[in-house]
Design brief:
The protein folds into two domains: about 180 residues, GAF domain (Beta-Lactamase, 2-Layer Sandwich); about 150 residues, Heat Shock Protein 90, CATH 3.30.565.10. It has eleven helices and twelve strands. The chain has a five-stranded antiparallel sheet with strand order 2-1-5-4-3, sandwiched between helices.
Length: about 425
Amino acid sequence: MVAKPDGDETPKRAAIVQLDRAWVESYGSGTFQEALYELSLQARLAVQAHQVAISYVPDGDFQAAIHTHSFSEKYEKYNTYDVMPTGEGIWGVVVKSRRAVRMTDEELHSHPQWKNFSDLLDDRGLEHPEMRGWLAVPILRQDGGFVGVLQASDKYEGEFSEDDLNEFTHLANMIAPTFELQYVNHQLEQSNVELKQFAYVASHDLQTPLRAISGFARFLQEDYQGKLDEKADKHIERIIQGCNRMQTMINDLLTYSRVESRARPFQPTDLNEVFDDAVAILASSIEDSGGAVTCGELPTVASDPSHLAQLLQNLIGNGLKYCGDDPPHVHVSAENSGNEWTIAVRDNGIGIDSKYHERIFEIFRRLHTHDEIPGTGIGLAVCRRIVHRHGGRIWLESETGKGSTFYFAIPERSNEQQE
Ligand code: ADP
């Protein structure tokens, strides 16, 4: 471990290899910001300066930046002094030139970039003390993009040397990949949010025409009951089935994109009714499969009923889809264990090898992809999200060829989790 700066007695010069270690250790054990802070303390010792600052500036945006700094006692009153988010002063010089700079105080003061900075200082009523030189090094991504600045000012004695600049450049190169990782991570999170918003809006908009198609198909069915030949009846029935299937996928997408999952409060929900609704929606799939879906006595729980319907629909639907040669039989039962209900959805289908039991709930994880088995790979991921939102757990017992039982346990009383 590198020694912490202790008061202001002239510290021993920290070897650069120790700085490497300090960075790796602190990055591994805390947040990015804490690691930056730790490094700024150590870097100040390395170049023996009264002030060091490290700025992570994603996309060159100083407003979105994270800044950490270390001041010696000499600058104690500057600890709350927030000049860095401006992109002015020495930061501005580096951002413009994209090169490491070493300057005397006079050189910086006569630089055009200094002007705004000193205006800012005046605004805050603090006089900038004379500095024994400045060092600043840009932190760059591999593609040359600018992601940060490493900066020091006011050497304890004398001016900063070429060696100091080299050490700082080394340090900047060392932390650049981590900054880049941080940046990429941020971009990914951002596009993840955008994709989810897109999925939500697109699936929401798809519902309107879909409702029109299935609504008019039902009108046709009712208005022309007994007047159409068997073939036309079948075609209409197929349209309605297709709409139901599509509605299930849309519901999964809506839930996965999360937005609407926050809206509805929990209410007492009779699972027998939820089961009946799910079976009604799956009616044509059940009929096509030649199988059966049954249930025992189910309890009333506190839930978001539309989400529980979706959960049961997905689990029962899978039991029907992933069946073996025999006609599928899916049975839903419930068991009370103190303060929670465990619901089991058992099928006699093809089963799932135990090595996949954990990962099967991840999005897009599909084991049995077959043209005849339609699927998106989001059904179980959505089930898990719904169960977690109800403060519960989901798991399965299954063996290849011996059917599967999916269990979910939810608290008896409302215990809503907001993700
Ligand atoms: P989808 O059914 O749309 O592919 P799911 O997320 O619902 O997506 O399921 C993921 C995968 O888990 C399925 O592709 C299938 O391989 C497997 N699976 C799910 N339920 C069962 C089941 N009851 N029996 C056998 N395999 C199943």
